[in-house]
């Protein structure tokens, strides 16, 4: 299916925000988020399932779609809205077999070659990054830059494209103009937890088209 991505694609991070994933979903949705990715790199599967369930209950109560990062098994067990996969995770084709046609499947790429290959996979959107230097990953891939983003946009055709990495209020417009359908944000949204809702609103007010 061809999904319409929101202009702003928030991603949770418990260590960065100091908040539970459920509370992050609550604050992000209060600011206008309609789709949130739950990213958790440090918990054992049982604990991951528990915190993801709490976040999903909040998301369901607020009409927000919840995407689970990496863990197809958790997404399947929870009947979450979808999964976001990295280059070393379960292949998208296998995830599609497990989760079905209605699940949203996103896939991370980090250069033009990976993006070209990913465009042929059974995914709903493709992510490319880091666009700019980022501190939200321990070992980030080489910076793609705006020119790399433009090349990916040309190569993948109409596949929905999410840009990620070092994106903030000052550069988000340039990223959208370079061809991204959506921009993923972590540090800008989460680094000041008391401002999550207001920062969501400030971005959406400037860059989300009026309905």
Tell me what you see in this structure:
With 211 residues, the chain is α/β, with parallel strands linked by helices. The chain has a single domain (8-205), classed as TIM Barrel. It is 41% helix and 16% strand. It has ten helices and eight strands. The chain has helices at residues 14-17, 21-30, 45-61, 72-78, 92-99, 112-118, 145-156, 172-177, 187-190, 196-207, and strands spanning 8-10, 35-38, 65-69, 82-85, 104-109, 125-128, 161-164, 182-185. Strands 1-8-7-6-5-4-3-2 form an eight-stranded parallel beta sheet. α5 (92-99) links the parallel β4 and β5. α2 packs parallel to α3 (45-61). The longest helix has 17 residues, at 45-61. The protein is globular. The protein starts with 7 loop residues before the first strand and ends with a helix. The model has no long low-confidence stretch (mean pLDDT 94).
Uncertain segments of ≥5 residues (pLDDT<50)?
none
Individual helix count: 10
3D shape: globular
| CATH level-3 fold name | TIM Barrel
Strand order of the largest sheet: 1-8-7-6-5-4-3-2
Oligomer: single chain
- How many beta-strand runs? 8
Overall tally of domains: 1
Q: Give the overall average pLDDT.
A: 94
Taken as a percent bin, the fraction of beta residues is 15-25%
The class by helix and strand makeup works out as: alpha/beta
* Topology as a string of helices (H) and strands (E): EHHEHEHEHEHEHEHEHH
């Amino acid at each position: 299916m061809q999904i319409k991505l929101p202009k702003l694609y928030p991603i949770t991070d418990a260590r960065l925000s100091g908040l539970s994933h459920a509370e992050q979903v609550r604050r992000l949705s209060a600011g206008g988020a309609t789709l949130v990715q739950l990213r958790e790199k440090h918990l054992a599967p049982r604990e991951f399932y528990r915190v993801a369930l709490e976040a999903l209950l909040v998301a369901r109560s607020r009409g927000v779609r919840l995407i689970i990062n990496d863990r197809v098994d958790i997404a399947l067990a929870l009947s979450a809205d979808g999964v976001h996969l990295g280059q070393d995770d379960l292949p998208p084709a296998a995830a599609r077999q497990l989760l079905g046609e209605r699940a949203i499947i996103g896939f991370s790429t980090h250069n033009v070659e990976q993006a070209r290959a990913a465009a042929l996979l059974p995914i709903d959107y493709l992510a490319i990054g880091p666009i700019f230097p980022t501190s939200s990953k321990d070992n980030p891939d080489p910076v793609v830059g705006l020119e790399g983003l433009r090349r990916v946009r040309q190569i993948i055709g109409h596949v929905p494209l999410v840009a990620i990495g070092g994106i903030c209020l000052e550069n988000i417009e340039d990223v959208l103009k370079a061809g991204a359908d959506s921009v993923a944000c972590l540090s800008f949204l989460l680094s000041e937890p008391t401002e999550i809702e207001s920062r969501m609103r400030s971005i959406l007010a400037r860059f989300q088209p009026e309905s």
